[in-house]
């Protein structure tokens, strides 16, 4: 049986990590979801996705992902959601080279879903606008739309109201504590601050960069507390999302690398550049301008 269409994707598609540079919990909706204010910035550390179009409509994941059954995989769910929204009869083989830690607050799963939507919208020729793709993205996860739009953003609501922002693009040292934090458990915690006052972007830009989840996460997850304390010695550690990853910013790459080399052996650590534009958008631009060059690379 033949299943390949003529459109073979060739090179991989990047799915970058995000950092929440601040996060305020400003209210709670009737459905239990929390209203947030947050700032998203991308970093140049990425999962890589390979997508091969199939002409039989089947969407498959190639390879395993620890603890995530194929039907639950956000890439598979994203591809199926795009099929459903557009009536497209093409399918895809999806392979993900996982670099980003899962459940670490770096948004890897959400980013994988967004990259799948953006790439298949191109490869399948479904031609949805960014707004239409973002609508399909939101039910897959609150962080998926920002990855679809690919611009650093000031976000409100559950993360669906996005305003692009132009931020400094420093270097970040990211530490990956040896524990996984459940987003659900943090939002269910009785001691979580849920009534922070709303601030303006200007307040954040002048230094108001609190993460309201930090006190609870610090108390419940000692490896996160230790990682933050260690980063504080380098000028201030911050939590991304609900964790577990923590980060510190550096003006100079060499200084970030020095800190990375000094990190305790028990911690995984990496240095990455802050980005206001997702590498996914650059990849899409390249594909549109010169698809043959990418296929050959
Ligand atoms: C808080 C953020 C910031 O980026 O954290 P990270 O997951 O990246 O750490 C995200 O918006 C997370 O969004 P998302 O990834 O969709 O959250 P999920 O894992 O689906 O949420 C798990 C559970 O947490 C609760 N939840 C989540 C988001 C929110 N704004 N309010 C909530 O109350 C809900 O009970 C939900 O069922
Ligand atoms: N392709 C995927 N990559 C990562 N996680 C996935 C994927 N598909 C589903 N998941 C599920 O989504 C959860 C959250 O993943 P992730 O986005 O990496 O973390 P976070 O939301 O903390 O930033 C994982 O623990 C996993 O159960």
Written overview of the protein:
Helix 1 runs parallel beside helix 2. The chain starts with a strand and ends with a helix. It has eleven helices and eleven strands. The mean pLDDT is 94. It has a single domain, classed as Ribosomal Protein S5, domain 2, CATH 3.30.230. The chain is globular and about 55 Å long. By secondary structure, it is of the alpha+beta class. The structure holds 4-diphosphocytidyl-2-C-methyl-D-erythritol 2-phosphate and adenosine-5'-diphosphate (ADP).
CATH class equals: Alpha Beta
Order of helices and strands: EEEEHEHHHEEEHHHHEEHEHH
* Distance between the amino and carboxyl termini: 28 Å
Radius of gyration: 19 Å
Binding site for ATP: 101-111
Pfam family, one: GHMP_kinases_N
Catalytic activity: 4-CDP-2-C-methyl-D-erythritol + ATP = 4-CDP-2-C-methyl-D-erythritol 2-phosphate + ADP + H(+)
Function: Catalyzes the phosphorylation of the position 2 hydroxy group of 4-diphosphocytidyl-2C-methyl-D-erythritol.
């Amino acid at each position: 049986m033949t299943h390949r269409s003529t459109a073979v994707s060739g090179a991989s598609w990047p799915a970058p990590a995000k950092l929440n540079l601040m996060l305020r919990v400003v209210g709670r909706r009737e459905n239990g979801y929390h209203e947030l204010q947050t700032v998203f910035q991308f970093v140049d550390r990425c999962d890589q996705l390979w997508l091969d179009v199939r002409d039989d409509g089947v969407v498959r994941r190639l390879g395993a992902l620890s603890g995530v059954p194929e039907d639950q995989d956000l890439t598979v769910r994203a591809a199926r959601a795009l099929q459903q929204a557009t009536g497209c009869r093409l399918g895809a083989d999806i392979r993900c080279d996982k670099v980003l830690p899962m459940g670490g607050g770096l948004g890897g799963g959400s980013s994988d879903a967004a990259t799948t939507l953006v790439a298949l919208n191109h490869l399948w020729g479904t031609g949805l606008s960014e707004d239409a793709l973002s609508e399909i993205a939101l039910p897959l996860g609150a962080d998926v739309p920002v990855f679809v739009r690919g611009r650093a953003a000031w976000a409100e609501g559950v993360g669906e109201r996005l305003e692009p922002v132009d931020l400094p693009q420093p270097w970040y040292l990211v530490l990956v504590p040896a524990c996984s934090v459940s987003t659900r458990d943090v939002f269910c915690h009785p001691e979580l601050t849920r009534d922070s006052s709303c601030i303006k972007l200007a307040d954040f830009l002048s230094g108001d960069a609190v993460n309201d989840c930090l006190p609870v996460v610090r108390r419940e997850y000692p490896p996160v507390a230790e990682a933050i304390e260690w980063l504080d010695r380098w000028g201030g550690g911050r939590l991304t999302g609900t964790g577990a990853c923590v980060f510190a910013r550096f003006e100079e790459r060499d200084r970030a690398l020095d800190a990375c080399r000094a990190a305790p052996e028990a911690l995984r650590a990496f240095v990455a550049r802050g980005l206001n534009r997702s590498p996914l958008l650059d990849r899409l631009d390249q594909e549109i301008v010169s698809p043959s060059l990418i296929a050959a690379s």
